[in-house]
Structures are given as structure tokens and as C-alpha cells.
Amino acid sequence: MIKIAYHPVYAHPLPAGHRFPMLKYELIPAQLLHEGTIEERNLFAPEPTNEENIITTHDAKYWRQLKELTLPYQEQRRIGFPLDAQLVEREIRIAQGTIDGAIYAQQNGIAFNVAGGTHHAGSNWGEGFCLLNDQAIAANYLLNNELAKRILIVDLDVHQGNGTAQIFENEDRVFTFSMHGDKNFPFRKEKSDLDVPLADGTTDDEFLHILNEKLPLIIQKHQPDFVFYLSGVDVLESDKLGKLALSKAACKQRDQIVFENCIKAGLPVQVSMGGGYSEDIKVIVDAHCNTFRTAFDLIS
């Protein structure tokens, strides 16, 4: 059975008028339940992760400042919203949801976190709405507990996974692959193992051609035994922040390419949702739901 991490704190409210669409985290599971793609038994509510898991990936001083709500104002501005206790709880539950999802994926092939994909959080900084890097924490958990030997992180959010790249820059067991907008945030990029910078206005055919070409070669060369997939839908043409020009159909096809390559290679995959900033919340939710639908269609 495909398991999906979700907790009500995922939809933690932010100041009125904030552009980050937290509402989607309630609407995604509600839509999937309504249409019958999933049942209640597919969902699980993660507990907060423990400090050991966090400081294996993040600097202990940075974590202490988050926990004690003493992070300097300038660093809170870099994150993009004011720090509070519920926001920190949200991040540590997301991290545990991705750890649990990785274990479920090893049992069932694919698992999801309704939130996550917090790839801008580096070892000692938060940025771009990200405090703690859920997939990096989960990757280190698998490695440190000898549950995986070689890991591939496939980041197809429109923004480079700079935090993930920095965390694993000296870790040969983790291969970081990021396809992202070249002239988009973050404007200071880190170096992934493979970065594919995309021009503004990149279309369906070009994006899918590159992914079809690169991903099988990476799997063949790196020989991972686990995959983390960040499936941001801010690649859509309708996205306010994305600058690419993908259709919803191509975004779904992107997901299918990732899942089919993982299934073909016998690789378990944990999926975190990442970004999505289209004007119409229905577009965001439907595009994210397509990722779930595609996986369920392939696994069932």
C-alpha cells in the first residue's frame, strides 16, 4: 500500500496576504480522498523527528536557534516568514514524514509526503520558505542506519536545490540532480552533482527530452538503491514565480518518466511535493494530485 505523510500542522497559517499557498496542503489529501484515488488508510500522521536526525544534517547551533526561536532577524528574512513554535513543529514533522515515507517506500515501492521538498535549507541556514531539509535529513537517516548505500535525489522543482547540493557536496554516496530555471531563485547557486539550468520559457518538449535523456544515464552510472524525488509544480506556465512554460499534461508526464525509470530499475522512491505558485489554487492542487494519480496508476 502506498503511504502518504500528512498532518494538519502542514497548513500552518501565515500572515494575511502572504504569497506562500499553505492552503494546498489541506486541499491535496482532501481532493485525493474525494475522488477515490486514496483512502484514509493511505494517510499517516508523522510525529516530530528527534534532534539526532536533525543535527546529523544541520548545524547544531542553527537548530538550537530554530528550536529556541532565537534565529537572528536577518536570517528569518532570508527564510521568508517570521519564526514561531508551530512553524518549527511543522518542519520537524515534515522531516519525520519523509523519513517514515522512505521506509514505507522500501516496503511498497513509492511513498509520499504531502509537504516537504524543503531543498533551500542548507546545513546552517534556512531560505526560500525552508527551515530544515526534509529529504537531506531522510537521506542521511537511510545512510547512517545502513538502510541504503547509494542515493539519488531528483529535484525537478523550478528552483535549484541549493541547500541539498551544499549539504551533500562532499558525500559521494548521494548524487544530486537538479533541473531548474537558470535565471530564477536562488540567484547564488550551489553545485549539484548534475545541474541542468533551463532558459526562461522552456517548453514541454525540451524539458521532457532532457529528462528522458539524463535520468536513465544517471541511474545507470550512479547505481543508487534509493531515490528521493522533489516534484514541484512551479514548472507550470501558469506559475507566478516559475518562468518556465510547461503544460499540466507535461508536468504529469514528467512524473511518469521519473516513476517509470525507478520502477524499471527496481528503485524505491520517496516523493515530496515542493513548490507551486499558480494564481489559481485549483491548478496547483490538481497538478500536485496528478503526481499521486500517476504513481497509483503505475503501482496498482
Automatic annotation (TrEMBL):
Histone deacetylase domain ranges (all copies): 22-281
Family stated for the protein in its record: Belongs to the histone deacetylase family.
Keywords for this protein: Hydrolase
Signal sequence annotation: none
InterPro entries assigned to the protein according to its UniProt record, in alphabetical order: HDAC_classIV, HDACs, His_deacetylse_dom, His_deacetylse_dom_sf, Ureohydrolase_dom_sf
Domain of life: Bacteria
Name by which UniProt lists this protein: Histone deacetylase
Any Pfam family: Hist_deacetyl
Organism expressing this protein natively: Pedobacter helvus
